[in-house]
Amino acid sequence: MPPVPSADALAHSGRVAAFIRSEIQRAGGWIGFDRYMEMALYAPALGYYASGTRKFGDAASGGDFVTAPEISPLFAQALANQVAQVLEHCASRVMEFGAGSGVLARDLLDALARRGMHDVRYSIVEVSADLQERQRATLAGRSVSWLAAPPSDFVGVIIANEVLDVMSVQLFVKRGGHVLERGVTIVDDHFVFADAPAGRDLDTAVQSIETEVGALPEGYGSEVGLIARAWIASLPGWLASGVALLIDYGFPRCEYYHPQRLMGTLMCHYRQHAHADPLWLPGLNDITAHVDFTAIADAAQAAGLDVLGYTSQAHFLLNCGLTDILKADHTHVRANEAHRLLSEAEMGELFKVMALGRGIDVPLIGFARGDRTHTL
Prior knowledge:
Largest sheet: 8 strands, mixed
CATH class: Alpha Beta
Oligomer: single chain
Mean pLDDT: 93
């Protein structure tokens, strides 16, 4: 059973719903799901990531979900080995997008400092004022700056951990041989899904998918992340030289749009309760979609970036020395945490790591074994 929201939470969701409802009415009674998702997550002072509700953490702490950095500092300690390798070949700068609670930045800076890298300039690009406040508390006393937008001449390492999955996606469904866009309308004062003819960009994107994976069956529905592709295409405008590490759950295109995955990957989280109804309690739910890493690689290469590696989180962390880090923990208290990070039944296989680069020709240690770039 899903958890019961408090009266305050219900009131907040009601305000978010009213905001979205007014937008639908202004748009003539229908909006694309991508617009709905954008407002539900990011509407100023209302959306999930723009309000003061607790998001990260386990059930006991009142969080909706737990990310790898919060499961264990082992994640950041292993990641630090990859970051350090890149920083040996370029400026000592790290820029993190969507830094969540700030735990990854804290643990990564501590791990780099233990390697003698005390002069790393760490910047965070965060669109949520609420999360930025929490990050400042977590990182108090450390040399970190917050940016409203990425610089145009960045040299170093860019980190985006679970960022692409919360970028708005367009939903589509195949009907009668045509591509329809799934959007949101209002019936009896409730949000419901409704389909409309797909616009040119979405139709072209689905045709491209079908060229690679074959014709999708009647009634097949999924999502396309055009915003994520655009974000990747903009990376060369920021990254003068260095590596961008993208860590998220997803698949190569042939797995993502498998005919048996009939209704896509859209998923929501509310107080550790996972469900697939993004129209329920808008503003209280995290809304995510898996990442089409083939699309990300294509967008990167089209923009002039190199795909330097793609593998599972388990392979990446092991390549970066997690086993040795774990052995050094003589208390053995981290063993269960390592299992969650590495196990195929937990995060080890579902989460992937992709490295995009510019001006870097050294093989990255995180992809020394188990590189799956050939599957994209």
